[in-house]
Amino acid sequence: MVQMEEIEKVLDEKVRPALHAHGGDVVVKSYEDSILKVKMVGKCSGCPSAHDTNEEIIAAEVKEVFPEIKDVILVEEVSQELIDMAYKILKHEV
């Protein structure tokens, strides 16, 4: 079974340099049942190209080293700060 340390090493060596060049990064959210879930952070978070980056860079590099990983899923979460701001806008408080 693939260890998280091994996944992080691949991300550090093959993925993060490209993301850092754009002011972003990737965080592993979970790895179970051969599915890796990642979240883009920094300037990569919410970027319109995030799904392409996940498919073309993150998933490609990880699956090349670890063929047993079936899929790499991009997790998109909305921050509580953004939700709170949306409520304020809807209530005309801003």
What's this model, at a glance?
The protein is of the alpha+beta class and 94 residues long. It is 47% helix and 22% strand. The chain has a single domain, classed as GMP Synthetase, Chain A, domain 3, CATH 3.30.300.
Describe this structure in words.
By secondary structure, the protein is of the alpha+beta class. It has a single domain, classed as 2-Layer Sandwich (GMP Synthetase, Chain A, domain 3). Helix content is 47%, strand content 22%. The protein has 3 helices and 3 strands. It has helices spanning 4-20, 50-65, 80-90; strands at residues 24-32, 35-42, 71-74. The protein has a 3-stranded mixed β-sheet. Helix 2 links the parallel strand 2 and strand 3 (71-74). It is elongated.
Order of helices and strands: HEEHEH
Annotated CATH topology:
GMP Synthetase, Chain A, domain 3
What is the top-level CATH class? Answer: Alpha Beta
What's the helical proportion of residues?
40-55%
Unreliable stretches: none
Radius of gyration: 16 Å
Named at the architecture level, the CATH assignment is 2-Layer Sandwich
Largest sheet: 3 strands, mixed
Blueprint (SSEs and pairs):
Blueprint: H1 4-20, E1 24-32, E2 35-42, H2 50-65, E3 71-74, H3 80-90
Question: Main attributes?
Answer:
single chain; 94 residues; alpha+beta; GMP Synthetase, Chain A, domain 3; 3-stranded mixed beta sheet; 3 strands; 47% helix
